[in-house]
Write a structure and sequence with these properties.
The protein is an alpha/beta fold. 40% of the residues lie in helices and 22% in strands. Helix 27 (662-668) links the parallel strand 25 and strand 26. It is globular.
Length: 744
């Protein structure tokens, strides 16, 4: 058995290795523009405009990259679309554009400091030991158990460390909230933690709802601590420290709001027209805000000391003495599968009892370094490292593990796969879930079907890698996926998710949604992202686009690595009523081993007659978007009309083996004389103005860098079988992106 001191030593080494890696190679990069020198008194303070609102904590260490030069500094202010940086060296009075580099490695340094404190406390070391080596003997009275909630209350009363395994939709938030409320009713102190603000908000909202229903809520007893409180708590503003401040010290709250509003106006003025007087005034305002925030902080510490339930993030808990210097009767760590093991251990030291809750079948923690100790302690969760999962692999549940085993989220046709292949029949469906999801299932796309494999086999060789990031994208599957989203939207479904393993594909879909929906986007809850953004959320409809297909020689690591089961599990289990899997069955059967989860999913869907091929495209496309049209590829009138209507340019890409028919050459000759025709092909066809001797693996036509025809010209194109379908997309952003891939 490893000693607690050895654990702590290895954790600190792992954290330091990750810090060193981030300092050397890491860094989130943000474009900043229009930099102006505000002051050179005690350093060089600059004001920059930002493309989006940056949420970088004040005081954070940063680097500024300008051309070949780098400058270290820290953040003085980061509000709205503007930042003030204090740099060590001068870059002159004006900086047109630069990159701001920031990584939250300071948070890891603070965690190292907390681990130092644990070394000095015998009680805290004992709590770490109980977490990492959970007893095989339980002390709670099993004969008294009436429900999951009751069992958790009993377990957390009698046992030092309780592990809760909460697969998707099994009532994890419901159960944790009632266990926390039970302690609250007994006047016990509870600390609720998670790695993400969203997870903290959801659980704190559920706790507050339940206490209010029991008419036992008292202002100041329940506090959500932190600045990044999201929309989830809009209906529970009374638990935020900002709202509490307005009640307890209205003058101080008004001072803060007045100064922040004044700063906002000054930044707006500076963004439009820079003046020395405004810049000096802004620095004065920042000084005043710092003084007010110091007073606010003292008030917040009083609030937290008096509160019975406090919710905040793991990062905030490790960095703020208002949290880590308190002692709690119970600590609840939610979404623990995404927390570093040292974070879970730190959480355990703050309470007499701890509940560790999560799903070790979902995404693991994220770390960048490949050092062995980082792999061991920062890339695997506490369920694995404490031996809880090992017991499961031996065919039994660990005595300290409570499994929530009845899911109420997914329609049974969706959960059938995850219940069997991910959770090995330990999880089942609640009897109500089929009926409750029927309304969603009944709607388009694919009416009356809850789970569908949209098979893109033999529709072309569309999967290529982004030139700059190496992330894969697939325009054909992108457009099919957008059509699915549009069909769901037109059917009245507003909660829609699009998930993919590849960042390039997710970005393309995000651009498409912005461009194609415009005003409607605010009316619908649509998210396009990679899997990590979806953990902890759910949607009525989920479109899962695997992207991988020919001409790639193998499926990507994201779909075949040891963590691919977790990734696919999250993608599927976000769904309430309709799951559509956009995938190339032929490619997966050819390139992915039968033991891999993705192959199992495709085989399962084919076996259960959930597969739909391109032959049936005309049956499920009910609504043609004004900017995306689906047309039979042998009917050329529409594309020839676009060719004739071109104003500046025509670009035609012909992959190897594809021919340009006489009909095409004839139509191209009719273009206006000022319209430039460019041919991308390894063979010369017709009489183009420019011939580029290279090729994409798929054919396309681009008109005026705005209209994209995918699937044409068709003659001789590889990997395409009838029925022949072409897509016409009106999107300058997608055209621009595709041009960059060919560096044209």
């Amino acid at each position: 058995m490893i000693s607690t001191k050895t654990y702590i030593k290895e954790w600190q080494q792992a954290l330091q290795q990750e810090i060193n890696y981030l300092k050397k190679f890491g860094g989130s990069r943000y474009m900043v523009t229009n930099g102006r020198l505000l002051s050179n008194d005690g350093g060089y303070s600059y004001y920059f405009d930002t493309v989006t609102s940056l949420r970088i904590p004040v005081g954070s260490t940063i680097k500024l990259e300008w051309g070949m030069m780098q400058n270290s500094g820290r953040v003085l202010s980061s509000e709205g679309r503007g930042v003030i940086l204090l740099l060590e060296k001068s870059f002159g009075d004006l900086i047109s554009d630069a990159y701001l580099l920031h990584d939250p490695w300071e948070l890891l340094e603070q965690l190292i400091e907390r681990l130092d404190a644990i070394k000095k406390s015998k009680q805290k070391r004992l709590r770490v030991k109980r977490l990492m080596n959970p007893s095989v003997q339980t002390k709670h009275p099993k004969e008294k158990i009436k429900s999951n909630v009751h069992e958790l209350v009993l377990r957390s009363k009698y046992n030092p460390a309780t592990f809760v395994w909460g697969p998707p939709g099994t009532g994890k938030t419901y159960t944790l909230a009632r266990a926390a409320a039970n302690k609250y009713f007994q006047q016990k102190k509870v600390l609720i933690l998670s790695h993400s603000n969203q997870a903290v908000d959801v659980l704190m909202g559920e706790v507050t709802d339940f206490i209010k229903k029991k008419n036992r809520f008292r202002e100041g007893d329940v506090i959500r601590f932190g600045v990044n409180v999201g929309d989830t708590l809009k209906t529970h503003q009374e638990i935020t420290t900002a709202q509490l401040m307005e009640k307890k010290d209205p003058l101080l709250a008004q001072d803060r709001e007045r100064l922040i509003e004044e700063r906002r106006h000054l930044k707006k003025d500076l963004a439009s027209s820079f003046s020395k007087r405004d810049s000096e005034h802004l620095l004065e305002i920042e000084t005043q805000i710092a003084k007010v925030l110091d007073k606010v902080r003292k008030k917040e510490m009083e609030f937290i000391k008096d509160a019975l339930i406090v919710g905040t993030t793991l990062a905030k808990a490790a960095s703020d003495s208002a949290i880590y210097e308190q002692e709690y009767d119970l600590v609840i760590l939610d979404e623990a599968s995404m927390a570093y093991v040292p974070q879970a251990a730190f959480a355990a030291t703050m309470g007499k009892r701890i509940i560790i809750c999560g799903d070790f079948k979902q995404l693991p923690p994220i770390a960048s370094s490949r050092a062995p100790l980082v792999e061991k302690w920062l890339k695997e969760d506490v369920f694995h490292q404490s031996g809880v999962v090992e017991s499961l692999n031996e065919g039994k549940l660990h005595p300290q593990l409570l499994l929530l085993k009845e899911q109420r989220r997914m329609h049974p046709d969706i959960s059938a796969f995850t219940n069997q292949y991910i959770y090995h029949s330990l999880v089942g469906d609640h009897e109500s879930v089929s009926k409750s999801r029927n309304e969603i299932v009944a709607r388009s796309p694919f009416k009356k079907q809850a789970a569908v494999l949209l098979d893109t086999s033999f529709t072309g060789l569309h999967c290529i890698s982004d030139q700059s990031t190496n992330s894969r994208f697939n325009l054909w599957q992108l457009l099919l996926s957008f059509q699915l989203i549009y069909e769901a939207y037109m059917a009245g479904m507003k909660s829609i998710g699009y998930v993919t393993p590849y960042r390039a594909q997710a970005n393309l879909m995000e651009w498409l949604l912005e461009e194609m929906f415009e005003n409607e986007r605010t009316q619908a809850d649509m998210i396009a992202a990679t899997v990590h953004r979806f953990q902890g959320s759910e949607r009525d409809v989920m479109i899962f686009d695997t992207v991988d297909s020919d001409p790639q020689e193998r499926a990507g690591m994201l779909l075949t690595s040891k963590d691919s089961e977790r990734l696919l599990n999250v993608a599927i289990t976000r769904t309430r009523g309709k799951f559509v899997h956009v995938s190339n069955r032929h490619f997966i059967e050819k390139r992915v081993f039968q033991g891999k989860t993705l192959r199992k999913l495709v085989d399962h869907q084919v076996r259960h007659n959930q597969s739909v091929t391109t032959k049936e495209i005309g049956t499920w496309i009910q609504n043609q978007h004004t900017k995306l049209k689906w047309i039979h590829a042998l009917k050329l009138e529409a594309v020839f009309f676009d060719v004739k209507s071109a104003r500046t340019s025509i670009l035609i890409s012909l992959p190897e083996g594809t021919a340009l028919s006489e009909e095409w050459v004839k139509e191209l000759s009719k273009r206006e004389s000022y319209v430039k025709w460019t041919l991308i092909s390894e063979q010369m066809w017709g009489n183009p103005d420019t011939w580029l001797d290279s090729s994409f693996p798929f054919p396309f036509v681009m008109i005026d860098e705005k209209v994209l025809w995918l699937g044409l010209p068709l003659e001789g194109a590889k990997g395409i079988r009838p029925p022949y379908v072409a897509a016409r997309l009106d999107s300058s952003k997608v055209c621009e992106y595709l041009l960059k891939q060919g560096e044209m």
